[in-house]
Amino acid sequence: MAGFDKRVGSYAEALEGLENGMTxxxxxxxLCGIPENLIAEIKRKGTRELTVVSNNxxxxxxxxxxxxxxxxxRKMISSYVGENALFExxxxxGELEVELTPQGTLAEKLRAGGAGIPxxxxxxxxxxxxxxxxxVREFNARPHIFEQAITGDFAIVKGWKADHFGNVxxxxxxxxxxxxxxxxxxxxxxxxxxxxxxxxxxxxxxHTPGIYVDRIICGKFEKRIEKRTLRG
Length: 232
Prior knowledge:
Layout: H1 11-14, E1 23-26, H2 36-45, E2 50-53, H3 66-69, E3 73-78, H4 85-92, E4 97-100, H5 103-115, E5 119-122, E6 136-139, E7 142-148, E8 152-158, E9 161-163, E10 168-169, H6 178-183, E11 185-192, E12 194-196, E13 215-218
Parallel strand pairs: 1-2, 1-8, 2-3, 3-4, 8-11, 9-12, 11-13
Antiparallel strand pairs: 5-7, 6-7, 9-10
């Protein structure tokens, strides 16, 4: 299937099959490298009761934050949620279930899921609330907790360039969680800034091989700056 043309012509087609109650993996870190148009399409579709796995939940009015507006997210598995007032409100009101996970553990959960590894041990989180109810084993005289891998029904990913076959290149720090999410979805959808002809991508520069990708779409992006810092 490596030579199969994976381009789709609309965002509705890109997310065909996404249903209520599914688990959604989303790439991005803050507002960097987020699949913003795919998120907007999920809002348009009105898909509900989602479990969303992502480093964070965007901000008020942009990124994954827009899915909170109509309460489309049932549970959020994240490592950082400090930039979203609506998220905080829904959490405190008991309207949103949240599973906070150390950032490196979250990354490894996705990587392991994509690699077919069901679980792993890590020292991160031992002795904290993160370890409550989890098996503990000692390796090299240090306690480690047992963490389960994560896979999802859909993965939504933001790339820079892709070819027709779904080979993807990310740009700079947009390599954050996108390559990890791409491998761990049963259906992986990637939106990119440019789709090039087969053979135009240097094979050694490809970050996500097309074998992991089911659908590719080319979009236009706002690319907001989350926090602007100026030096006087």
